[in-house]
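Worked problem 6 (solution included).
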Amino acid sequence: MTLTKPPEPMKPVESMGLRYDGQKLWFLDQTLLPHREEWLVAEHPSVMIEAIKMLRVRGAPLIGVAAAMSLGDFEQRGASRAELVEAGRQLASARPTAINLMHAVDRCLAARSAAEEAQAIFAEDVALCQRIGRHGAGLINDGSNVMTICNAGAIATVGIGTALGVFAAAKAQGKKFHVFVPETRPLLQGARLTTWELNRLGIPFTLICDNMMGIVLSRKKIQTVVVGADRIAKNGDFANKIGTYGLAVMARYHGVPFYVAAPHTTVDHKTLRGEDIPVETRHAGEVIGTAGLAAAEVYNPAFDVTPADLVTGWILDSGLKTKNDFLE
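Solution. The predicted structure is:
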């Protein structure tokens, strides 16, 4: 008779935006940053679903790990298989663009134990970020000016980050450089989150409005642009926060190398090209804010898609890739 080993209980883990203390799953409410750091408990997958939809938990790698940990925690609380599958379905549909979310949910539901798989996904993301940072740090020159957009740092992952992970790794090598940060309208992830992280890292930065990217590229001698990604198509086209496409076009015009930093979990081999990537459209209130104009028509895509032709290289956990690697 073969005995099946029971699943191992989830062990405590911690990152800048997500932690499990052995009893409860906690997440940092990123909508309150930088003014307040408040941790909330995801006592049920429905709480995590709402947190992901409302961007309390955000960043392509992080929402994948957070969804996995939510399923693992739910399993440990005695959820049935049917309840796990339904929770996974709802988690996977919380946001449509970031493929990490779907990949993580699929892995948990296919595993013998969602809890064990969730912990493996957490540890894997930490390692992937470290490798991305190591592969990308050499692209940052000592004494240079660099630019990014949105937030692709430690609070968008459970490791050191992707684009900001490259910066963190470069700083750890002793390099001195300056980061220009577009505010990233309409929700100001650059102004609120990236500046908060850079300040914690001790990396000097300058905050600019989104419509200043062109003049900064032309006058400030930006040497390198590094951005994150929410989904990379099989041909290398990629979706990232709205404004990335325009930044890539301007970088190409000014001859500035433009790199995408992301783990392999962000690559979607089933999506052949950028035009096939679903782009999330969010509600008008994010744009209108408190300015009124209640009857105004608003178009609010959360992401745009940048063609592979505008990308100098992809900094993946497996190494620096070129367009030829995506054509193989």
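Discussion: Residues 15 and 158 are 5 Å apart (CA to CA).
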